[in-house]
Amino acid sequence: MALVGNLRDFGLSDFLYLVDRGYKTGGLHLAYQHEMALLFFEQGKLLLAVRRPEDVQAALLVRLGVLTAEELNRARSGLAMSADGTTLTQVIVEEQLVPRERLQRALQAFTEEAVYGLFAWPEGEFRFEQNQRPAHDTPVIPMPISVDHLIMEGVRRIDEWGRIKDRIPSTDMVAHFLEQPREHLKGVKLSTTEWRLLARINDRDTLAELAQKTGMSDFEVCRIVYGFLTTGLVEVQRKPRPTSRGSQPAEPPKVKKSLVNRIIHRIKDM
Amino acid sequence: MQTVKMVVTGAVNAGKTEFIRSISDIEVVSTERRATDDTRMIKHETTVAMDFGRIAIADDLVLHLFGTPGQKRFDFMWEILSEGMLGLVILVDSTRPETFRETNRIIDFFVSFRETPFVIAANKQDRPNAWAPDELRLALRQPAHVKILPCVASDRASVKNILLELLYVIQENSEEA
Ligand SMILES: Nc1nc2c(ncn2[C@@H]2O[C@H](COP(=O)(O)OP(=O)(O)OP(=O)(O)O)[C@@H](O)[C@H]2O)c(=O)[nH]1
Ligand SMILES: [Mg+2]
């Protein structure tokens, strides 16, 4: 079944997070005014992103200068003779028409550029067709790429509060590191400013205090922390409400187990 | 006579009234009004104050179910309705990602300051293009220990299951004798 919605309500970085953490396979179709985009994912990693329908065709490789027209024909006939399920990319790599690294670099750069542009869309319909795979002759990146650093790069391009506010409603929130940030967060490349802020996160200072200590603007701090949040590096919580006596907030009275059990029995019998 | 209370909340049109109707022993007391403002885009009737349903547990014990109004301008009701509740069901319309942010705001309001036992019900699972509970967990950024359960609010068995799952969470936080 398809996941449908609008990027206005569920942003691209949220979607990338979902695909990544959910190890999703499928095609994400995006449309905004006259523009389109199509992204293919395999197990949460990005295989290819295009901004024009014709770019899913093998001729893309010629346009990118990766193959000559003649080499592409050889790859195509190789594909025609291969076992079912073989992809054009596999044929190109196996027949050594181009070094794998070169193919990787060209398609990865093309895909990243396609995705970065999408972060500028203020809205756009999306439709994620689960388990939709590219055609066998669609060129795909030999080693699919992790979307983490795309998320971070997308967040760097945010220039208004709107998007940040729903996740970070105020600057008196405190950022905490998640207990187990993921293995492949290693793939995220942080800028110096981002590192500087990351180093200051200490479970105590609010975002406003972090801004003061680093000399950054509130917006910059919130935007960077939003990026950390979106990649799953930190979480934010409100600073606990100070209580008048300076003690812990009063625990609500506990209910009796016997009472709960009575309700459970009754509802089971309904 | 002892009464205990549970609250059913969620964004506009999540299915709160439907949920309470499916399980209440009495005709649900709703304050449906013809929807005005932006809510009218989605539906004709909306709850303006609250829904109220009840389940008799025994001669001396009643469970009250309160549904919060969905529209933002009734947020002030939340505090009042949630006072002294045993637990909370947060309904999400799994077919409308445009409500996920509002859902997070609601979760934040009810759950961040107190240890309220709660479950999230991924409602309208019978509809095509419903996001699955696992997808909602990622979309709403909820940790693994939070229960996110499939739900069809018009189906009594499904509502029963949600209430039981919530009761198990409450049971874990309850005290002996
Ligand atoms: N298919 C399907 N429809 C549902 C389900 N639950 C609710 N609905 C429908 O969704 C619409 C909204 O349900 P309500 O119960 O009015 O939602 P609400 O949360 O009380 O809405 P407000 O009071 O306006 O905030 C109605 O048309 C219901 O019939 C469900 O599980 N499946
Ligand atoms: Mg209602």
The overall strand count of chain A is 7
The bound ligands are: guanosine-5'-triphosphate, magnesium ion
Give the helices and strands of chain A as they follow along the chain: EHEEEHHHHEHHEHHHEH
CATH topology of chain B: Rossmann fold
Report the average pLDDT across residues of chain B.
Answer: 88
User: Gap between N and C termini of chain B, in Å?
Assistant: 19 Å
**Discrete helix count of chain B:** 5
Compressed to H and E, one letter per element, the order of chain B equals EHEEEHEHEHEH
Query: What is the count of structural domains of chain B?
Result: 1
Strands across the major sheet of chain B, in which order?
2-3-4-1-5-6-7
Q: Summarize the largest interface: chains and residue counts.
A: A-B, 38 and 43 residues
**Shape annotation of chain B:** globular
| Total domain count of chain A | 2
Structural class of chain B: alpha/beta
Pfam families (chain A): DUF4388
Domain PatA-like N-terminal (chain A): 5-161
Protein name (chain A): DUF4388 domain-containing protein
InterPro entries (chain A): PatA-like_N (IPR025497)
Features:
heterodimer, A: 270 residues, alpha+beta, Arc Repressor Mutant, subunit A, five-stranded antiparallel β-sheet, two-stranded antiparallel ribbon, 7 strands, 41% helix, B: 177 residues, alpha/beta, Rossmann fold, seven-stranded mixed β-sheet, 5 helices, binds guanosine-5'-triphosphate, binds magnesium ion, hydrolase (chain B)
